[in-house]
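Example record used in the benchmark description.
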Amino acid sequence: SILRCQRKGKGSIFKMNLKKNSGSPKYTALNKIEKNKKFKGIVTKFLFDRICHRPNLKIKINVPDFKLSYYELFIAVEGLYTGKTIFCGLKSKLSLGYVLPVKKIPLGSSICNVEEKNGDCGTIARSSGTFCILITVLHAKKIAKIKLPSKNLKIVNFNCRATLGIVAGSGRTKKPLLKAGSKFYNMSKRKKKFPRVRGVATNPVDHPHGGGNHQHIGHASTISRRCPPGQKIGLIAAKRTGIKGHRILYKLREKF
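Model output (structure tokens):
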């Protein structure tokens, strides 16, 4: 039989149902209008992203030189509504939902959908309820320091674009799932397996840790990097095991 650690890959029939999904929101590709001036967009519709559990915006953008208009998907920010105008570019004002380069945003403001590299259309702080805080901007070195949702600090180019505000849909994780069925459907949207059975609770034919009169592994949980796929399960090529802080505590006790 095929073990759980071998059942990986793209697959054939088990695919995500993305027919009703809104799509991946991102900024427009960098052009001369956005680099030097600004362009206007109107919020026409709110769409729900089934994968990220977050509302997105459908924005109608009018081309200034031609009698044309096209639609783009942006990440929704708290406080927006249909019919609101959004400006994107260097000369746009400071308002909720506007897209600006980091160098034009005041220090201490909360931003979201920040570009990691200039022109990558936004990669940082995109999930619901997340935001970054702008700490410093060094114009001489052309860099900016931001505080991530994980409280870590990151340095980006000061020409990278960001949206003013907090991503909509905050408080999503505070509501409890209450039952296993809702957890199952929540994980199936993201193509993840649930429930996940422990290896020691299975039979020896199904898992390398299975079998025995008591639920135990029976051998070392560390495994070599060069093992075959059916055997490679557990702590793969571990340099050390156990809790890291315990060694520091033992050293402090020996001193005192």
